[in-house]
Amino acid sequence: MGRGLFQPMHLLVLFAIALLIFGPKKLPELGKGLGEAIRGFKDSLKTDEATPPVQPPGTTASPDTKSPTESNQQSKN
Questions:
Q1: Which of 1, 33, 48, 72 is the most exposed place for a label (fewest CB within 10 A)?
Q2: How far is CA 66 from CA 47, 56, 70, 77, in A?
Q3: Region of 58 on the Ramachandran plot (φ > 0 left; ψ -120 to 50 alpha; else beta)
Q4: Domain spans of the chain?
Q5: pLDDT digits over 10-49, tens only?
Q6: Are 60 and 67 in contact (CB under 8 A)?
Q7: What is the DSSP secondary-structure string of 23-39?
């Protein structure tokens, strides 16, 4: 398999192919769009970790309320 997938020569060939396909005017736009997408993905991961899970509408989460599975397990015992 060689010394790795992304050697400098491989990256140059990939860049040359992308330049031929998309042209010199479109490449900066593609890079900008890709960078914004990655940044947005990272930001959404950070906000998901910071916010607690949201309860669906119509349900209440109180400590004394038992789920149906909990009440079924207690009735079996």
A1: 1
A2: 29, 16, 6, 16
A3: left
A4: 24-49
A5: 889 988 998 999 898 898 898 899 999 999 999 988 876 6
A6: no
A7: -TTHHHHHHHHHHHHHH
What gap in Å lies between CA 22 and CA 14, rounded to an integer? 12
Instruction: Report the distance separating Cα 6 and Cα 26, nearest Å.
Output: 23
Centre a 10 Å sphere on the Cβ of residue 19 and count the other Cβ atoms it contains.
Answer: 12
pLDDT for the residue 57: 74
Cα diameter, the chain: 72
DSSP 63: T
- Residue 62 is predicted with a pLDDT of 56
Nearest partner of 18 among 9, 34, 26, 35, judged by Cα: 26
The position carrying tokens 């989460």 is 61
Could you report the per-residue pLDDT of 45-69, keeping only the tens digit for each? 887 666 666 677 776 655 555 555 5
